[in-house]
Amino acid sequence: MLLERESALAHATAALRRAEAGEGALLVVRGPLGVGRSTLLESLAALSRDHGFVLLRAQASAAEEPFQFGVVGQLLDSLRGVVPPDDMARWLRRADASLPGGTSRTAPTDGTPAAAPAWSALSRQQAPRWLTGLLGCIQDDRPAVLMVDDLQWADTGSLHALALSLARRARRRILFVFSVLPGDVRGTRQHVRDLLAPQDYRAEPRCPDGPFRSDDPVSDQTLELAPLGLNSVRLLVEKSLGGATDPVFVDTVATRSGGNPLLLRTVLDEAQYLRLRPTATDAVVVATLRPERVRQRLDAFLRSQPDHVRRVAYALTLLGPAADEQFVARLAELDDAGREQAVEVLRLAGLVDRRSYRLTSGTVLRDLLEENMPAQERTVMRGVTAELLHRAGHPAELAAEQLMAVITLRGPKAVRILRTAAASAQRRGSPRDAARYLRPALLDASLSGHNRARLLVDLATSERSFATAASLRHVVEAVPLLITVRERADAMLLLGPLQMDPPTFRIDAIRASIAEELRRSDAGEATERELALRLEAREHVLSAQDPAHIQRALRRFRDLGPSPRLATPGERELVTSLMHIAFVAGAVPAEQLASLCTRILEQERPIPDHVHSTVPLAVNILAGAEHTEGAANWLREAHRLAQRRGGDVEQAVIRCEQALVALAEGHRTYARNKVVQADALAGPEASGLPTVCTAVLSIVAMNTDEPELAEQLLTQHRLHTENQHLAALLHVARGSLAARRDEPRTALDHYRTAGRRTEQIGWLNPVVLPWSSCAALMHHRLGEHEEAVAAAQSELDRSRAWGAPTALGRGLVVLGRVTSGRKGPELLEEAVTVLEKSGNVYELCRALYALGTHRETHHNRRSETLKRAHRLANEHDAPALTRKISSKLAERTREPEARGNRLTPSERKVARLAAAGLSNSDIASQLGTSSRMVEKHLTNSYRKLGISGRPGLAKALTGDDAEQ
Question: What's the domain count of the chain?
């Protein structure tokens, strides 16, 4: 398929017609490497055969250049098999006769074609006349086309032999077609230049025939071939790979090949071999292809060039867009004349843009040019390039890119360039690029001691935004190499308390050692005091699951007084860490902690880096205390900045904070979306989410009715068995899943285990883990009334002590649900009153639903509360709860009020034991009652549940539990 060559073929067709009419001419086909010169000549050959021309064709090559008259021999060989033997013999005899003293040949009697002359026997003066005589004989019979591909590689004897025939073309029926690669060093030979411009040719003085020149007018033409456009690329992609083509794939192929037919064809062949499809996904693979066929062509071209041309090609490759005259000359170590000559050669070959110092022909050629460079030479040239760019004031990152592919760095200068580039990347909000620049610097052998430590600290600063474990490791490696305790403390404080897990690299022991050294230094300066406060804050956060430390921290918090100083970051971090302990222990009322947290948030800027301090713990407390008014806007601004210049860790932590605040405000859908976004950012490189964030996300997942998501998040965390809070949350998640499967006893065991774990570490605030209310509901489902009330009352008491409306309202709802008689609705009414003040509409809807479905609630009050719950749930986008309330309202319209339509606690207890397979006598023995009473309870249960007997009991109880 020849695309965008219609004009060239039209010119060739016109030249054939003129030659047929006796107006011989020269047609030169030029174009850069791989532009399709040979393909066009193939089309011209077919065209000439279609017009009845005799075709003499040769392919010159560098390997055959030493063979005298090699191209002329190919021209004669091409006649065999395409012309009758008699014609061939006659033409050869007449060609022999054209030589001075020549004799006619006698055709072989066996009918075989006559042999070509022994070229070694012909002198340099005889060959042109013999070839001219042969062509004259041919054109007397039929018009002819003489075609030589890659003329620049033809041997000197053949070039000289062609000159006389070409000079006499004007009155002959012969079209000469030569293709040539511009810029090739062999193309600068005088004989080649003379053939390409025959009107200026002069013969050697000793030639008996004088100059090979004709004054007859000729219609010579030069066809310049150009790369293909985007539409042609698209057509070739469709033809090669089939199907609909994605514009991204086509653009990638066009960029990779530069529209060069050879590059385009080889890239598509490779894509076809790899069974790629023309999709945006596979475009990523196409962008990496480096076809071997192109590599071989490029190698052959570069080997044929002088050394200074290769060096300029390499210099242009490395400099890229920064290339200019001075840079190229200095990098290639050439003077201006040598540089210009080399650039001109590369321009003629189509490798360099005609108007600039940039490479053309697509990115694949640029990649292969770089790979063609010897490794040692590439390393040296890249180092020099980096220094040149940096010294000339180019962006440090542009210079650093040169050093990213070298095997070894060239000493302190290279390290300095990389560190400058890393600082630039960090400022523009790209920590990954900053770390990418710094990592190779660690390989420099000249870097040791304090200098290496500073580099490790810089690297850890970048990595903390996306690779927490690597950041921790590099801080631990840097600390012993730093000279002063202040430097060591600064390095340790790079790590936020959320990212410092105690078991990792013995990080807590290192922190304690630095803190002790800081205390012993007794410098007394404000800087040292600030460092000590911040290190102490991390100690409190890391020791928050130690009951003994909790008591010490609470005493420290009380010693600070009701209004502690919050003027410096160290003071704010210390107070926040102590408040965190007071919060999880439930030791200080919500109002007091919320007031302090609000003051802290007012003094902190909403920037992504706050996640590396204790500020997220303050947000956690505000959400638990339900004082989220300012926190939501503060986080929104921090998130906006994080999206623009923050790393994955910053974005993930901020989304965790937003999820917790949204949950506290009753926006469950928004909270759940933030959970998914945060989890997606916490990949393996980031070593997962920090412990506190994992806990937050699992709490949000369980509060949005997705315990399976909570279980997944928790089991993926590397510390879910060591961290007591995570382990307790995992038991709560598994308890919720067991409750869904109607396994109340299993669920209760999980909830109790969670409770034991939290009690052991002194975390008593029900906001942190409301395990007791979950256990109360399972006791209630099992018919264990007293245990249910005791568990619910325990959580309610702690919720009252904490003082947050939502926690208190939830506790009242659970106690109201498990309390029989008129006391139940009274507790639920109190829950509604409390939750109306909280602003959490979702929890208010749940309380209204519980009140509207309690068996002891008055009939009119039931209808009223259910309708209100339905309206609120619908207004605040709670579809699952809306459907649940709608179902209950529809049921109430279908069935009249039946006061005795719910199982009593005794009936439920008996029914559950019967559903478990116990006989009436076993049930009576276990409950300490009579068999007759058991039978009575079962009869009532069958009637109320609408079943005929024991077989349907288990299923009916499940449905009844779900309603309640």
Answer: 6
Which residues on adjacent β-strands are paired with residue 221?
A: 27
User: Using CA atoms in the order 338, 340, 343, 345, what is the torsion angle rounded to 10 degrees?
Assistant: -80
The winner for highest mean pLDDT among 126-130, 204-208, 522-526, 633-637 is 633-637
Q: What angle do CA 517, 521, 525 make, to 5 degrees?
A: 120
DSSP annotation string for 160-197? HHHHHHHHT-TTSSEEEEEEE-TT-GGGGSHHHHHHHS
The one-letter code for the residue type at 275 is R
CA distances 538 to 574, 579, 672, Å, are: 8, 13, 30
- Rounded to the nearest 5 degrees, what angle is found at the Cα of 65, between the Cα atoms of 59 and 67? 100
Final residue before a domain boundary, out of 857, 875, 899? 899
My answer on whether 735 and 834 are in the same domain is no
Amino acid at 838: S
Judged by phi (left if over 0) then psi (alpha if -120 to 50, else beta), residue 67 lies in beta
Q: Is residue 105 in a domain?
A: yes
- With the CA atoms of 257, 260, 263 and 268 taken in that order, what torsion angle do they form, in degrees rounded to the nearest 10? 70
CATH number at residue 580: 1.25.40
- Would you say residue 894 has pLDDT above 80? no
Whether 880 maps to a domain, the answer reads yes
Q: What tens digit of pLDDT does each residue of 274-296 get?
A: 999 999 999 999 988 888 888 88
Q: Are residues 891 and 848 in the same domain?
A: yes
The model's pLDDT over 660-684, given as tens digits with 9 standing for 90+, comes to 999 998 888 888 888 888 877 765 5
Which residue type occupies 644?
R
Does residue 420 fall inside a structural domain?
no
Sign of dihedral through CA atoms 929, 930, 934, 937? negative
Residues 250 and 314 in one domain: no
DSSP 446-495: T--HHHHHHHHHHHHHHHTTT-HHHHHHHHHHHGGG-SSHHHHHHHHHTS
DSSP 115: P
Give me the helices (H) in 83-153, please.
Answer: 85-97, 126-141
Statement: residue 895 has pLDDT above 80: no
Token reading at 98 = 């054209």
Question: How many of the other CB atoms lie within 10 Å of CB of 118?
Answer: 7
Alpha-carbon distance 698 to 690, whole Å?
12
Q: Is 149 helix (H, G, I), strand (E, B) or coil?
A: strand
Q: How many CA atoms lie within 13 A of 773 on its CB side?
A: 22
Which are the contacts of 167, defined by CB distance < 8 A and separation ≥ 6?
198, 201, 211, 212, 213, 214
Q: Are residues 217 and 247 located together in one domain of the fold?
A: no
Q: Are 406 and 378 a contacting pair, CB within 8 Å?
A: yes
Residues 672 and 588 in one domain: yes
Tokens at 162, concatenated: 């062609």
With b for 16 or more beta-carbon neighbours within 10 A and e for fewer, the 129-163 pattern comes to bbbbbbbbbbbeeebbbbbbbbbbbbbbbbbbbbb
Q: Against a cut of 0.70, is the pTM above it?
A: no
- Distance between CA atoms of residues 911 and 923, nearest Å: 10
| Residue 897 confidence (pLDDT) above 70 | no
In the chain, the N- to C-terminal Cα span, in Å, equals: 75
Residues constituting the chain: 964
CATH of the domain at 109: 3.40.50.300
Read off the tokens for 214: 């004709």
Q: Do residues 177 and 146 make contact, with C-beta atoms less than 8 angstroms apart?
A: yes
Instruction: Tell me if 718 is assigned to some domain.
Output: yes
Q: Tell me which residue range forms the domain holding 358.
A: 290-373
Same domain for 195 and 260:
no
Same domain, 257 and 126: no
Tally Cβ neighbours within 10 Å of residue 468.
26
pLDDT score for 366: 78
**782, 912 in Cβ contact below 8 A?**
yes
